[in-house]
Amino acid sequence: MGAEAFAPVRLRLQELMEYVAGFLAAYEQKSWETRATYNRALREFLYFFTRDRRFFFRPRDVERYRAYLVRIKKLQPASVATYMTALRRLCQYLVDRGVLERNPARRVLGARRAQQHSRLFLTAAEIEQLLASIETSTLVGLRDRALILMMLGCACSERELAAADVGDIRRKAGKWVIYLQGKGHRAKDEVVPIPPKVYEALTAYLAARGVEDPAEPLFVSYSPRGRGQRMSVRGMREVVNQRLRESGIKRERARKLTPFSLRHTAGLLLVESGVSVEELMQRMRIRWRPTALLYVRQRGKVGSGPELQSLVRL
């Protein structure tokens, strides 16, 4: 059935706002980040709804909203996709409530996905240069090396590592793993294997630190103001950026080469080590297969040898 088969559904602004409030309340059990994202996206939709005055929940109305996000708001494809997902789920909520017969946003795509990653990654020579630049005779150096290897070997983000505790590292099926709180999750239910080389760096840091309590943060600050406290996401970014600068690999790529580039490098290292797409998705916590395939398409760009592949090999 075509788009014209959708009968127009007229809602007053107050009615729609009440439905949006009910939809957001249904997501109360989700993480704060997820709720904040949907709240922000649906505020934009409500603004469009009041200005448009002819949004009657038909596919062509949804397409007009998408065009508004792209041409008027000039949002990036990833943001357009997020806003469209929020609208799609709101419409499904209205279907479940009996307000709509069908979901008009179901077949309207969010935005064209990127064919390659926009962030840069480190080459094999740059990885070696970065690791060689970290002096491990100090506690700070041991921490920074372990932090960077967790990003390179386990594809960890700063947010995941900032929430990690010492006790989240456990033995499972004969291998060391870490339980992480993934994006949008409220519990530490992502089980990520730790390669032996990365585990060695972690244990060297924790041993030098003299950690005994499993409830202690995995990574702590050594700055004058926050000494001994849990490292923040911002603090981790500053540390990694400083190490990237001091190693000399930032150069003209200062803006594009970021801490998150280490996660992208991890994906390419995994591909170079020969893992399947399914294992790549599991170890990087990727839910959408085409995203994982972006890494496969860039096989060979890092140019890693056996020594660097050992960073991700279990």
What key phrases describe this protein's structure?
314 residues; mainly alpha; hpI Integrase, Chain A; 2 domains; 13 helices; 52% helix; elongated
Give structural notes.
A hairpin with a 2-residue loop joins strand 1 and strand 2. A three-stranded antiparallel beta sheet has the order 1-2-3. The radius of gyration is 23 Å and the shape is elongated. The N and C termini lie far apart (51 Å). The protein is mainly α and 314 residues long. It contains 13 helices and three strands. The longest helix has 21 residues, at 32-52. Residues 113-118 have low confidence and may be disordered. It has two domains: 3-96, no CATH class; 124-309, hpI Integrase, Chain A (Orthogonal Bundle).
Count of runs of 4 or more consecutive helical residues: 13
Could you describe the largest sheet, including whether it forms a barrel?
A: 3 strands, antiparallel
- Average pLDDT, rounded to a whole number, is 88
Cα-atom Rg, whole angstroms? Answer: 23 Å
Order of helices and strands: HHHHHHHEEEHHHHHH
The CATH topology of the largest domain turns out to be: hpI Integrase, Chain A
Q: Would you count the extended β strands for me?
A: 3
| Integer tally of domains | 2
**Approximate shape:** elongated
